[in-house]
Amino acid sequence: MTIGYSYRLMVVPLTLLVLSSVLLVGCKSETPKQGPVVPKSSSSIPVQSSSGVDEVVADTVVADTVVSDSAVSDTAVLDSATKGVVVQSSSSAISSSSLERSSSSEETVMSSSSSEVVVDSVPPVVADTTVQDTVKDTIAVESVPEDTSLCANVPATVLCDKRDGQLYRTIHIGSQMWMAQNLNYAVSNSWCYNNSLENCSNYGRLYQWTAAMNLDKAYSHSLAGDLIEEKHQGVCPDGWYLPKDKDMETLVHYVTESNKTLGFATEEVGTSLRKETGWEENDEEILGTNRYGFSAVPAGYRDANGSFAFLGEEADFWVAEEESNGTQAPHWNLYYANQSFSGEYRNLKSFAFSVRCIKK
Question: Which pTM was predicted?
Answer without folding.
Answer: 0.60
